Amino acid sequence: MTKKRIWELDALRGICIIGMIVVHLFYDLSAFGGKSIDLPKWFLLIRQYGHILFVLISGICATLTASTTFKRGLAVFCAGLLVSYVTFFMDCVLGITNIRIWFGILHMLGVCMMLYPLFRKLPYWATALIGVIFIVLGYWMQTLTVSVDFLFPIGLRSAAFYVGSDFFPLFPGFGWFLIGAAVGKTAYRKKESLLPGVNADCMIFRFFRFIGRHSLWFYLLHQPVLTAVVLLIFA
Q1: Spatial separation of the C-alpha atoms in residues 186 and 180, rounded to whole Å
Q2: What separation in angstroms does the CA of 147 have from each of 7, 158, 201?
Q3: How many whole angstroms separate alpha carbon 106 and alpha carbon 124?
Q4: What span, in angstroms and rounded, lies between the C-alpha atoms of 65 and 189?
Q5: 184-210 per-position pLDDT tens digit
Q6: Helices (H) and strands (E) in the chain, counts
Q7: Which residues in 138-235 belong to E strands, given as ranges?
Q8: pTM above 0.85, yes or no
Q9: Apex 190 CA angle, 185 and 216, nearest 5
């Protein structure tokens, strides 16, 4: 029997994916289309912090599964490695600079999912407390510079190493994930929708739910499609 999905989590994830696609579209228009676009401050805030909602949702969803979190995380991390290889090729072979992704959102989420089983049995308050500690340490690490290059996945960066165009370290990323898990352990402890009276089958909700259910594929495929379209129109 297929477990019924919580529709609002899929829809919110779909909204996040659409927001990411819009952000990347503006980037492609600037980087590949030669278009200078004056973006409003609210859009810049979304570009800078919009990923937090996506990570929170991932943390909530981690509490809704019994034992597949590690396997799912491994698959997501491998997808992140694929992105790294592709962007490395684009940089070294095609000459598109400043595009490499060493530890992006997929790498971070994959590791978070693989680590979460270690925290699964903690009470919600302990999960939230550890999450806050990760977040505080993460933002503190942003003020530091270290002399080695290999600590960037946890958030410690070297001035001599370019961390990539899409960089999401475990500090504070895993903290937001754990905050989401704490929400999942409380608000979604019954593993049921919090909005059962809403018509989730209306067209707009179905659209966002579909994207949310297939968010990994949309993430992997949207950028090659956007880049190709922008190059075809403006190159």
Answers
A1: 10
A2: 46, 6, 54
A3: 25
A4: 11
A5: 999 999 999 999 989 999 999 999 999
A6: 9, 0
A7: none
A8: yes
A9: 70
